[in-house]
């Protein structure tokens, strides 16, 4: 498990497994967001299996599967709502952490500058520089 912190209340990770849940709890996370579609992983790593383990350990679990071609405003709004719950801090995961970083950046565009978002994701190893126009536009309209 390779957790990268983007903000004090949000971190991302590549795919997690059921056996990672105790370490996630020990790290202080209260919510897990799955941004990985079930079609990409075997049943042992699908959302239902991770949800069951997470909830058994007292964690909130939110399933917002994101595909590169299918990312939309509803997904961004759902991610923002899940991040804004009192059950922070939140760990979001996908295949590499990149999609979870992208959807976080888009969700935060109305409360953080594009520079802040890009700096946070760059520091974690995710380059969102190509999203600058979208981040700036979303920041101006929200």
What does this structure look like?
By secondary structure, the chain is α/β, with parallel strands linked by helices. The chain has one domain (4-141): Protein tyrosine phosphatase superfamily (Protein-Tyrosine Phosphatase, Chain A, Alpha-Beta Complex). It has six helices and five strands, in the order E-E-H-E-H-E-H-E-H-H-H. It has helices at residues 21-26, 47-56, 73-83, 98-108, 114-123, 132-141; strands spanning 4-7, 10-13, 31-34, 60-63, 90-93. Helix 3 packs across helix 4 (98-108) and helix 5 (114-123) crosses helix 6 (132-141). The radius of gyration is 14 Å and the shape is globular. The relative contact order is 0.19. The mean pLDDT is 91. GO terms for molecular function: hydrolase activity. Residues 2-109 form the Beta-lactamase hydrolase-like protein phosphatase-like domain. InterPro entries: BLH_phosphatase-like (IPR005939), Prot-tyrosine_phosphatase-like (IPR029021).
Give me a quick take on this structure.
This protein is of the alpha/beta class and 142 residues long. The chain is 41% helix and 14% strand. The protein has helices at residues 21-26, 47-56, 73-83, 98-108, 114-123, 132-141; strands at residues 4-7, 10-13, 31-34, 60-63, 90-93.
Brief descriptors of the model:
142 residues; alpha/beta; Protein-Tyrosine Phosphatase, Chain A; five-stranded mixed β-sheet; 5 strands; globular
- Spans of at least 5 consecutive residues whose pLDDT stays below 50 are none
Order of helices and strands: EEHEHEHEHHH
User: What best-fitting shape do the alpha-carbon axes yield?
Assistant: globular
- Percent of residues in helices: 40-55%
Helix/strand/pairing category: alpha/beta
Radius of gyration: 14 Å
DSSP summary, beta strand count? 5
Strand content is: 5-15%
Mean pLDDT across all amino acids: 91
CATH superfamily name? Protein tyrosine phosphatase superfamily
Q: What is the CATH topology descriptor?
A: Protein-Tyrosine Phosphatase, Chain A
């Amino acid at each position: 498990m390779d957790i990268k912190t983007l903000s004090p209340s949000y971190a991302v990770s590549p795919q997690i497994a059921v056996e990672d849940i105790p370490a996630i709890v020990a790290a202080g996370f209260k919510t897990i967001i799955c941004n990985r579609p079930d079609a990409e992983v075997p049943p042992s790593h699908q959302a239902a299996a991770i949800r069951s383990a997470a909830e058994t350990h007292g964690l909130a679990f939110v399933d917002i599967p994101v595909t590169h071609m299918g990312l939309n405003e509803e997904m961004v709004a759902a991610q923002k709502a899940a991040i804004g719950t009192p059950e922070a801090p939140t760990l979001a995961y996908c295949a590499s952490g990149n999609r979870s970083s992208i959807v976080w950046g888009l969700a935060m565009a109305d409360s953080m500058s594009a520079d802040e978002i890009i700096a946070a994701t760059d520091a974690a190893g995710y380059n969102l520089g190509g999203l600058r126009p979208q981040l700036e536009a979303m920041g101006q309209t929200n």
